[in-house]
Structures are given as structure tokens and as C-alpha cells.
Amino acid sequence: MNDNYVHKEDGIVYIDENIPGPKEKNNEYISLIELCNSQLTHSCNCGVKCEENICDCLKISGGVNYTSHSESHYLKLYKKNKNVMLTYPIIECSAHCKCSEKCGNRLVQNGPIGTLYVTTCKEKSIGLGLFTNKFIAKGTFICEYAGEVITKSEAIRRQQYNENKRKMNYIFCLNEHVSGGTIQIFIDPSMFGNIGRYINHSCEPKSEIIPVRVNSPIPKLAVFSCVDIFPNEEITFDYGASYLTNSSKSQDLNNGKTCLCGSKICRGYMPHNVY
Ligand SMILES: C[S@@+](CC[C@H](N)C(=O)[O-])C[C@H]1O[C@@H](n2cnc3c(N)ncnc32)[C@H](O)[C@@H]1O
After folding, report:
1. Which residue's alpha carbon is at the smallest distance from atom 22 of ligand 1?
2. Beta-carbon-side half-sphere exposure of residue 198 (alpha carbons within 13 Å)
3. Which stretches of 165-229 are DSSP H helices?
């Protein structure tokens, strides 16, 4: 992982990958740690290049995950020129595979792009935001949204604390709809996090979160641009993207916090996690 970013504020620990949250004395925590310590069982026996219908990792992912043009990799699904709807999980090749480290199915594991910077937003009450100093083409991997992987009880406790203290909320709830139900993963980069923790919400977002797995059942929350992003534009995602979270878009289920994204299609309120 090549990640040279640092936090400018004191009190936040920079981590380049998810870490397990603080110890709890309950079965929920034991299950979470078991999941954190387990590995995916698949691997491939490919040579240098992994190819569709041959590579065992790509077969699980339903085909080629990424396409490459010269030196850059793009999420293949964006070729369809619409927002991503995932049918298969995206699983990258890993250390257990026989293929080369340059096989083409390794992207998110290599770390964020190098053009990101953090600065105060024009709308000062939003606080800091994440920006790029160079053009980012649609479908490009930008960075991970990495933080502590916490239990649902801890997420509820932290969210209530943040609301009571009127603090910013960084908890991302990923809902993956699988046969037999929904799997929820809670990531909180408020105290331990990477550069992704500065991404603000927009009702007209420039990026989307796509779960990507690298040798672990716990997905990495990978941020991909969903439109072209120009130099000095802010990178945002929709905190309430319905296919990933159950954050409410309706006014009566929001937490009353006004959205300041400034878009013409702004919904007016910040999406609110309803676990
Ligand atoms: C994940 S943090 C984003 C980084 C944060 N702005 C900072 O300064 O560290 C999420 C918090 O940023 C603020 N925020 C993000 N998007 C916003 C928006 N569109 N309107 C108002 N506040 C926003 C809210 O306080 C929210 O709880």
C-alpha cells in the first residue's frame, strides 16, 4: 500500500487500512473479530495477466473488474455510462494468488491516488473537505474510506454521542444485500482514519463508494469517481446512496441537519443513518 498522506489536525491517527474497533465484552464483538481475522479462501493460478473466464478471482467477480488505458485503471462498470449497480462482489487478486502483482485485478490494495489535498470548504460550517489538484477521469479509484470497523451497538452509541454533542459524524454503514438477508458493516474514521475521512456529502456527488474485497471478508470502502473531476474541485459522495445504505432521504427521518452541498438538486437535509 502506497499512502503518504498525513492528518494535519492533532488527535487523529492516520491509518491506511481498516482496523478493528475497541474491545467490547459481547458476542457481537467476538463475531466481528472472527470476521476481521478470517481470510477469503479463493485464489488464482494465473500467470502474469488475469483474464476473464480463466482467473478464479475474476470468475467470482463476474468478469473483469477493471479496464486499463495506458497507465490508468478504471472501474469497468462505468463504461456503461451510468451509476454503478453491483451484481457481483468485487474481489481483487492477493498475495495468495500465483499471478503477478501487476495482473490488472489489483487496484484498491495499492493505495490512493497522489493528487488529493484537504482544505476548508467555501461553506465554512461544512469544515474540511477533500479536493484534487489534477484532473480525475470518471471511473478512477480515488482512495479508500478507511477507519475503525465497529459493531452495530458501538455505531449506535457513537452516533448518539455525536448528535448529543453536536459533533460531526463520520460513521459509514454499508448494507450489502445478499441472498438470505443484509450484511451490515460499520466503519468509523473519526479517530483512526485515512484521507477519505474528509469527503463531504453532496446530493450531486462526484464519487461513489464501492465495496472491494482484498483477501478479507471485510470490504474496503473504495471511492471511485462517477463523473470527471476537474482540478481544484471537491470530491464528494452521497451519504444516502440507497443501494448501499439505508440512510433516509425523507425529511421526517433525517436528523434535522441542513445540507449545505449547494447543488441545484439538493434535497435540503443531510441523509441520516437508520441502522
Ligand atoms: C465524514 S465528515 C466530512 C469531513 C468534515 N467536513 C471535516 O471537517 O472533517 C462528515 C461531516 O461533515 C459535515 N458535512 C459533510 N457534508 C456536508 C454537507 N453537505 N452539508 C453540511 N455539512 C456537511 C457534517 O458535519 C458531517 O457530519
Report:
1. 126
2. 25
3. none
Q: Is residue 138 part of a domain?
A: yes
What is residue 177's DSSP assignment? E
Residue 150 burial by Cβ neighbours in a 10 Å radius (0-12, 13-18, 19+) = buried
Bridge partner residues of 129 (DSSP): 119
> Residue 248: its pLDDT value, please?
39
Ranges of H-type helices in the chain? 27-37, 56-60, 152-164
Do the Cβ atoms of 257 and 201 come closer than 8 Å? no
Atom of ligand 1 nearest to the CA of 203: 19
Q: What is the arithmetic mean of pLDDT over 95-102?
A: 91
Residue 197 structural domain: 114-253
Closest by Cα among 15, 35, 25, 40 to 188 = 15
* 238 in a structural domain: yes
In a domain, 66, yes or no: no
80 located within any domain: no
pLDDT bucket at 27, cuts 50 / 70 / 90: very high
- Residue 249, C-alpha cell as written in the block: 432521504
CA 1-13-109 angle, 5° bins: 15
pTM: 0.93
Instruction: Kindly give the pairing relationship between strand 66-69 and strand 72-75.
Output: antiparallel
Give bridge partners of residue 236 from the DSSP assignment: 200
Mutate-to-test residue for ligand 1 from 148, 159, 191, 201, highest number of ligand atoms within 8 A of CB: 201
pLDDT at 171 over 90: yes
The atom of ligand 1 lying closest to the CA of 239 is 16
Q: Do the beta carbons of residue 235 and residue 199 sit within 8 Å?
A: yes
